[in-house]
Amino acid sequence: MAEHASWLICAQRRELNSPWRRLGCFKQALLTLAHLQKNETFTQLAAGFGVSNTTAWRYVDETLDALAAWAPDLHEALTGLGEGDHVIVDGTLIPTDRIAAGEPYYSMKHRRYGMNVQVIARPDGTPLWFSCATPGRTHELTAARAHSVVQACLTRQIPVLADRAYQGAGATVRTPYKNHREQPEHYQQFNRDHARLRAPGERAFAQLKSWRVLHRARCSTRRISTIVQAVHTLPTCGYSG
Length: 241
Hints:
Structural class: alpha/beta
């Protein structure tokens, strides 16, 4: 994984016409991966790699931009799905300690401040696409519509499995039946089958949050989208810390 990131950094330096830096491309990649995996502060990173705080911040920022540029957009992510394929759509909250912005970032569902991120995953839970982050108060269905998830899947006639938060989406989105005291048995069976097929979608978020920087983001809320897109390009490389 560090090799992959270092090649992107080398290409970026050539584009910027900035071949000489305090750290080589490989060490800059390691610095960024340490930040993502361990969620260390820039002071800790700077001390560990022998650079200033400002340089550590700049190196991480540049590397995240280079990685995020490789993340697929929504239409690219859905390309290649065959007839009969379905996807799982869900949302999660990326907690943040930046609460100065106040109410829009407070999720009543999770009882904490954060940013809402939507995912489209394959039936086995492999993530195909992560959305840009929106304020934590954003409802799941509102976020899915804002990112054109519902419309994109309808255009390609891709069945979507989602939880009750997406009820009312229509199109190709399938959600569980509402709970009723005397719900017919076939409704209950449908809900059980639906939950079983949708459960692997949690693996996509488990993969995303295996990076500790997303356990509680200390950065600006505007950078969380870039971090999410960047780490989406990394898991296949198998970095284990």
